[in-house]
Please model this.
Amino acid sequence: MRSSLKTAGAIVLMMTVAALIMGAIGAEVACSGADRQRTIRITYDAAIAADEHLTTYTHVHEEAIVRASPTKEQAVADLAAFRTKVDHAENVLKGVYSLVAAAALVNDDRSVATMLQAAAILSTELHDLGVTP
Amino acid sequence: MNATELIELSIHAAELTARIWDDVRAAHAGQIDPGEALAHIGTLHQKIIDDRAKVDAEVDAKFPAG
Model:
């Protein structure tokens, strides 16, 4: 669990770095293709890390729910409640992958900015799930 | 333009296209393949389904019917 939290911290950090790159470049100044590609790459790597971590995090928590549940009804209900929360983060993660693909294809400032917004939302989702450094 | 000239022109065009294509590939080396990024969506979706099926099986094993 502790290593999972460290991974999550790394994810948040990577996303923050990506946001900082964009911030440093400045919203009004169009950034270079190399800067955009670097930002897209960092976000992509962060998304992959988030993917692996979220899967592990979900598995660990679901097993804990099953272990702690005194009845099948309780296990099913608790799993459903947990999965509803996780589903949201997973859908955002899928959105980040889509926007990484779009940004890689279009490679303009607007697509990169949109991708970073989604990455920031994913970071918030992970935090809300209790995944904090 | 006769047939020989047309063939020579075609070969030249093909060589030029290959050279341009090499330049394009070199310029995009290291960049993210959009298809690869999109493939993660399907992989993630399947991983979720598989993992949930395993956990559901664990629930059934822990609380057998009857």
Remarks:
- The two ends of chain A are 11 Å apart (CA to CA).
- Helices of chain A lie at 2-25, 33-68, 72-106, 109-128.
- Residues 24-29 of chain A have pLDDT under 50 and may be disordered.
